[in-house]
Design goal:
This protein has 666 residues and is an alpha/beta fold. Among the domains are: 156 residues, P-loop containing nucleotide triphosphate hydrolases (Rossmann fold); 76 residues. The chain has a 7-stranded mixed beta sheet with strand order 2-3-4-1-5-6-8, sandwiched between helices. A hairpin with a 5-residue loop joins strand 3 and strand 4. Helix 14 crosses helix 26 and helix 21 crosses helix 28. The chain is elongated.
């Protein structure tokens, strides 16, 4: 992002504190990804105006519990605050219903000496729990503005904008730090200033607060601090911060009745129960998969009818020939064979959005922590793995939240076994060939997701020694449980619109281009006999299929399935396009080509063992080159990235081979 003359604000806070909701309330949801000076990752950015007509630039930083952390996403927040040019104002978002846990982060930001404004979000939850926060007194104690609001309802947003007056107030010295820390901080700051170090105070604070913080000045600082070790100073800083938080809690927070149980507490007694919690967990996710088949039939039939009518209209408007075939059999059949599954994909993202927005996902991570700890991971890895159900690329990037480098690598290596949305069209095409009825189809879908996830955990158990984790390694997991709340429908539907736009963009670009290429490969060269039944075998696609058929025949596949599999390495959804194109090309001219006719022809062409073999292959195969590229970037090792691609492809082949042979045997 180009340098801006507008004041630059950043949002800082714990995960699930409501930063993104506040960001959308301030900017109207007009977000974009921008590069922030001093860091190497795109951040969500937006702009808005204050009531005084001042234009401000806003960045939403990753959630963090502390500026002293080994987690990559928390280090991003730290690096932004240390960056040059400096931020003009830090807006620290705190949960008013859990203020004591959130205040230490605000104190750390104030200790950096950055202009700061504190936002007390979820003030309604605090009041509902009987907690009263004296915002005015807290402002006086912290010597910075404090604003109370409800970001999800837009209450207090105008007050926040009114408080954003330039020039922003300067921060006073952190009086809660012990004298020994203050003297050492002054020494280090003076030394760094003499070395022409920019932002000397912030760098000095970071070197003292985090003994593991890597800096070129680390060795020199140890020479300056001859009286105290940095580790001792970091402990002293933490002690002073704890005492200040205790003091602020006593003077500005009035708690409700002792032993008061909230609705969230009562729900957690059931949903986090060691037995009933798992029953609800499995039931919720089974309901999600059942709904994909039971509720999406009408919109899918509508899309199917639209593409069918479009194909008939184009076929009737143009004379017979290559152009007619390209438009009807190549573009309309190829793109339509993928777009038809958009309703089911949106249903999946809708339910995942509801679960995340209500606060249940944090509980799911808590439940999974006990299981994941047995394979060398923690509940912290659950959220990146869960992101992998949508798309492996953001899931791999979300693994930055895992503090341990070895756990992070292990999470990335197993993450592509989470069945992403690109696999969904293949599942949705093949599952109805096995069973009928929403309940049975939901069970099969659940089993496929369970197979991929279970294999991922088994792989983590087997690979943990390979990545350097000892067998007795116990991964730690610290996560704050957000209160249950009503779904944020605005967030959910904005997310659905984004996903639909992304899916349609892919269908209109990548899938469209590949469909044209696949049609051309299946059409040229043309068979001398001119007969439809001879064309596919004579075409370039048919010849490629015949060349690889000996490799895929033990899986129960023929040359058409082999070429569809090969093409889907560019994008998994192309499998559906290739099936639609191959059957469209081979069908008789007077035969109506619909989704059901494709399935009927497919079912009559292949056995149960072949369909199961295909499903197993697509559960395990890493057919996503963008994922391989992102893994290489995140791990800084093409050895791991290419090894993952080769290993998962080989595993998928062997699993499909075993499946086909065993089903045929029994």
């Amino acid at each position: 992002m180009a340098e801006s003359q507008s004041p630059r604000l950043v949002l800082v806070g714990h995960p699930n504190v409501g930063k993104s909701t506040l960001f959308n309330a301030l900017t109207g949801g007009s977000s974009k990804v921008g590069n922030y000076s001093g860091v190497t990752i795109g951040l969500t950015a937006g702009e808005f105006f204050t009531p005084h007509g001042q234009k401000l630039e806003l960045f939403d930083l990753p959630g963090c519990l502390s500026l002293v952390s080994n987690a990559v996403d928390e280090a991003i927040t730290r690096d932004v605050l240390l960056a040059d040019p400096a931020v003009d104002l830090v807006v620290v978002v705190l949960d008013a219903s859990a203020l004591e846990r959130h205040l230490p982060l605000a104190l750390q930001v104030l200790e950096l000496g950055l202009p700061t404004l504190v936002v007390l979000n979820k003030i309604d939850l605090a009041e509902k729990n009987g907690t009263r926060v004296a915002a005015k007194q807290l402002s006086e104690e912290l010597a910075c503005p404090v604003v109370s609001l409800r970001a999800d309802q837009g209450e207090g947003i105008l007050d926040l904008k009114q408080a954003l007056r330039t020039p922003f107030p300067k921060v006073k010295e952190a009086t809660w730090l012990p004298d020994s820390v203050g003297k050492s901080l002054a020494k280090v700051e003076a030394y760094l200033s003499s070395q022409q170090e920019t932002k000397a105070h912030r760098q000095a604070w970071m070197l003292l607060a985090d003994p593991d913080y890597e800096s070129d000045s680390r060795a020199s600082v140890r020479q300056v601090l001859t009286d105290l070790e940095p580790e001792t100073l970091a402990q002293e800083m933490e002690r002073g911060r704890r005492e200040k938080v205790r003091e602020l809690s006593q003077s500005t927070v009035a708690e409700g009745e002792e032993g008061h149980h909230t609705g969230s507490d009562r729900l957690d007694a059931i949903l986090l129960h060691p037995v009933f919690g798992w029953i609800f967990f499995l039931g919720i996710f089974f309901f999600v998969f059942w709904s994909l088949f039971s509720w999406s039939g009408i919109p899918m039939d509508l899309i199917d009818g639209l593409f069918g009518s479009l194909g008939e209209a184009v076929a009737g408007a143009l004379p017979s020939g290559l152009l007619n075939d390209l438009l009807v059999d190549g573009i309309i059949a190829g793109v339509g064979g993928v777009v038809i599954f958009l309703p089911q994909i949106l249903f999946l993202f809708f339910f995942l959005g509801v679960l995340e927005s209500t606060g249940y996902m944090a509980r799911a991570a808590f439940l999974m922590d006990g299981l994941m700890s047995r394979v060398g991971l923690s509940g912290r890895s659950f959220l990146p793995l869960l992101s992998g159900y949508a798309c492996a690329v953001p899931g791999v990037m979300a693994a930055r939240s895992v503090p341990s480098a070895k756990e992070r690598l292990l999470t990335i290596l197993i993450l592509p076994w989470m069945s992403c949305s690109a696999r969904l069209p293949v599942y949705l095409l093949l599952i109805p060939l096995l069973v009928s009825g929403g309940l049975a189809q939901g069970l099969v879908m659940f089993a496929l997701y369970f197979l991929g996830t279970g294999t991922a955990f088994l792989a983590a158990f087997l690979l943990r020694g390979r990545v350097g984790l000892s067998k007795d390694h116990q991964a730690s997991f610290l996560m704050e449980m957000p209160r249950y709340r009503a779904p944020d429908w605005g967030f959910i539907f904005r997310h659905l619109i984004e996903r639909a736009g992304s899916f349609l963009k892919k269908a209109g670009t990548v899938i469209l281009a590949l469909s044209i290429i696949l049609w051309a490969l299946a059409t040229f060269p043309q068979a001398p006999s001119g007969k439809e039944q001879d064309q596919f075998n004579y075409s370039a696609m048919g010849r490629i299929g015949q060349a690889i058929e000996p490799v895929v025949k033990p899986l129960g596949w023929d040359h058409r399935l082999g070429t569809a599999m090969l093409a889907s390495f560019a994008a998994r959804e192309v499998f559906n396009s290739q099936v639609a194109i191959s059957y469209a090309i081979e069908e008789d001219d007077d035969e109506e080509h619909t989704r059901e006719s494709v399935r009927d022809e497919f079912r009559s062409s292949y056995s149960l063992a072949t369909v199961l073999s295909l499903l197993v292959f697509y559960v395990f195969a890493l057919q996503c080159l963008p994922t391989t590229a992102v893994v290489g970037r995140e791990t800084k090792s093409w050895k791991w990235a290419l090894g993952q691609l080769a290993g998962m492809s080989l595993f998928a082949y062997l699993a499909a081979l075993l499946t086909f042979q065993l089903v045929n045997l029994f």
